[in-house]
User: Fold these one by one.
Assistant:
Number 1:
Amino acid sequence: MTFRGAGINVDHMHMGDLLRRGYDHPEAEIAAICDADPTRKAAAIDDFAIPGDRVFAAVAAATATGPDLVILCPATADHAQFVAQVAPFRANMLVEQPFASDLAGANRMIAACAAGGAMLAINWPLAWYPPHVATKRLIDEGTIGDVLGCISTTATSAQVRLRHRGQQGDAVVPRFRSARDPAAPRRPRGSRRARGSGRGAGPRAG
């Protein structure tokens, strides 16, 4: 049995990484790619040799192909809207992190999936990042004793963080900056560096 996946809305750059998982798997295939903007889906079409009859501009048309899983990578502010469109087709969904732009949006997504009988998962790659998994295992096994706290420092590209587009479209973008992006707005003087951001190389929150 071949597992069929569909990618809907390519606003976030992780769509290519997620589609690659299906493309490289011997028991999976890309059943559909969908975005109203032809330029955003062009790279995926070329990279994964997606035939024209699997390319769509409308969410309903792409979901009607009956995929086993729909991957959604819209801007965070649009997550609830797209989940609500897909849920009636009873297609299980993997939505790019973060969950939603606010609690109301998250509740709307949960309600839509419950009504449509669909499962919903949030893609958070660091949840299965090997060092994190190993650390959790060592803690659970008691190998390193009682752990009172944990801080993870990762160096990530500001481009990835900015593509989430914040709570209201581009509202949160000015909060993040990177040493590699000197043109980005700087955090207010005296503000604390957010835990988990890489010193120097990663984004910072003000």
Number 2:
Amino acid sequence: MQAIRAQGSGGQNVNKVSSAIHLRFDINGSSLPEKLKEKLLQLKDSRVTNDGVFVLKAQNYRTQEQNREDALARLVAWIKAATIEQKPRIKTKVSRAAKA
């Protein structure tokens, strides 16, 4: 995690204070289960680099602490979303009305 200056308008606070958080999470170097690592790396997400590093920028709040908490919460939510198994699609049958 690294503190950087936030983008956009906002006056003195944005121009002087490093309140945004740049979070880098190495998927390959983490202690996550191998199956989950593979699933995270296969996701079509532009935030995952070719080296397997998840990069996230949090700058929604005025303070560095709130942005740090936001970045960690978003990382956890991203990992939890990857653990959900997709249900297999059940083929539907053509109705009688459509056949006629």
Number 3:
Amino acid sequence: MTQATEKVTRWKEREPILDPGIEEGVKKLTPERIETVIKRVLGIQPERVKMYIQKCMHCGLCAEACHWYLSHDRDPTYGPVGKVRQTWWEILKA
């Protein structure tokens, strides 16, 4: 198993970090509200989002400039590519 694979496995097994403010906000979410926000974002700058997703090579070279990635022991799930895969790819697949 590679180091990156081990980190992804650890990410999937770790305990969630709970934040009372976020938890309260999540309780207010509904599928309709989520869809409204996604449509608003895609409506405001659809070309920018589409270009970013299509042009990104998912090579990870930008990770070294990402404070989130660096502050989490270079865990690939915290890098820009990992974050895009966990958010926009899932949203756009739907």
